């Protein structure tokens, strides 16, 4: 019997408490008093019906029992009210936590989408720049290369014929030759940036490819190059000519970043799970300003005099064409590190390790 009454009272009690919470405090107090009076009257009436008819004895018994029962009623209602308040606080806290979590996720998604949109917009602008360059690159490139070649041959002829000329003449002929070389490099960067051919992948030993690139670079005696490629590094699967151009550009940039001399460290590491090899070029130069880091691979952006800002664009385009990616880490006064990640071709070839420390001779 009591179990059935308890089962029936369970859904009614929370509803009663919710209704009480909607009332003002004076109304709740009045309701409690009326309820206590009603219980007292009911108890006295029940006792009167069940007692022997003597009113004084009934009143004495009721005077003891009624306050006790009223207190139990009030305490029970207060306990139920406090319990429901506690549950309501927990529910609200849970809802607030869920809303806070949803807001955080929404902000993270908005930030991610914004970054993706900015990156897509930047990529679109870069492609538009390259498209404009492509419209004039072929014509201008060929038109400039021919006279530059003639001028280079003329300087070589004069240097041969004027071998016994005075120091000033030889100095100016050297200046002319250097300027022609700088102009040829600008033309080559322009053409390479706007017309990259599809790669022809081949299995290449990394150490040998780096040594070839080093031999092509002009490294002054004030710069020490440390090439450290472990024997466990597997060969890479890339287009040798295109990767030679990438490595040559990065080595040349590192050398130019150290006009007062320094150390260029070239190393490699393997990620067997990702099946790739990362080649790093670390110089001890002055580093790159933070505001310039995000623009290094933007066409036509450069901080160097007499440059068109296409060397790193060539590096990025050729690396991506060969299934890799390039990253840069730098801080002012701490040098720069360019990392090129490329797909590996499998197990390392025995004897392809290279560990050297050299100066200007490669």
Topology of helices and strands:
Layout: H1 2-21, H2 25-50, H3 55-161, H4 167-194, E1 202-204, H5 206-216, E2 223-229, E3 236-238, H6 240-256, E4 262-271, E5 276-283, H7 290-293, H8 311-321, E6 325-330, E7 336-343, E8 354-358
Parallel strand pairs: 2-4
Antiparallel strand pairs: 1-3, 2-8, 4-5, 5-7, 6-7
Helix pairs in contact: 1-3, 2-3, 3-4, 5-6, 6-8
Q: Strand order within the widest sheet?
A: 6-7-5-4-2-8
Main beta sheet: strand number and arrangement?
A: 6 strands, mixed
CATH topology-level name of the largest domain: Heat Shock Protein 90
Radius of gyration equals 43 Å
CATH architecture of the largest domain: 2-Layer Sandwich
Classify the beta-strand content into a percent band: 5-15%
Shape: rod-shaped
The tally of structural domains comes to: 3
Question: Mean pLDDT score, rounded?
Answer: 76
Spell out the helices and strands N to C. HHHHEHEEHEEHHEEE
Q: How many helices does DSSP assign?
A: 8
Report the structural category: alpha+beta
Uncertain runs:
347-353, 358-362
- The end-to-end span amounts to 101 Å
Number of E-state strands: 8
Query: What is the CATH class name of the largest domain?
Result: Alpha Beta
């Amino acid at each position: 019997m009591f179990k059935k009454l308890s089962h029936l009272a369970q859904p009614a009690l929370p509803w009663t408490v919710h209704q009480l919470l909607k009332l003002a405090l004076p109304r709740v107090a009045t309701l409690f008093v009326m309820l206590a009076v009603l219980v007292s009257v009911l108890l006295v009436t029940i006792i009167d019906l069940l007692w022997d008819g003597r009113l004084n004895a009934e009143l004495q018994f009721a005077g003891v029992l009624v306050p006790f029962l009223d207190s139990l009623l009030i305490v029970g209602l207060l306990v139920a009210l406090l319990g429901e308040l506690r549950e309501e606080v927990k529910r609200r806290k849970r809802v607030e936590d869920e809303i806070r979590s949803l807001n955080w996720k929404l902000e993270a998604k908005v930030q991610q989408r914004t970054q993706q949109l900015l990156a897509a917009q930047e990529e679109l602008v870069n492609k538009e720049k390259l498209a404009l360059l492509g419209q004039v690159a072929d014509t201008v490139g060929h038109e400039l290369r021919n006279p530059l070649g003639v001028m280079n041959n003329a300087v070589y002829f004069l240097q041969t014929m004027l071998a016994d000329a005075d120091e000033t003449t030889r100095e100016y002929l050297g200046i002319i030759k250097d300027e022609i070389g700088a102009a040829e490099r600008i033309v080559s960067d322009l053409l390479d940036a706007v017309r990259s051919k599809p790669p022809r992948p081949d299995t290449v030993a990394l150490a040998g490819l780096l040594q070839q690139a080093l031999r092509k670079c002009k490294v002054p005696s004030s710069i020490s190059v440390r090439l450290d490629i472990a024997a466990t590094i597997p060969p890479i699967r890339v287009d040798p000519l295109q990767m030679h151009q990438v490595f040559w550009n990065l080595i040349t940039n590192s050398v130019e970043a150290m006009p007062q001399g320094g150390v260029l460290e070239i190393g490699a590491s393997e990620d067997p799970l990702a099946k790739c090899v990362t080649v790093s070029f670390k110089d001890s130069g002055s580093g790159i300003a933070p505001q310039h880091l995000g623009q290094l691979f933007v066409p036509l952006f450069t901080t160097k005099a007499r440059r068109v800002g296409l060397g790193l664009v060539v590096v990025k385009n050729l690396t991506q064409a060969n299934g890799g990616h390039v990253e840069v880490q730098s801080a002012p006064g701490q040098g720069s590190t360019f990392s090129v990640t490329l797909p590996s071709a499998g197990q390392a070839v025995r004897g392809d390790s290279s560990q050297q420390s050299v100066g200007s001779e490669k």
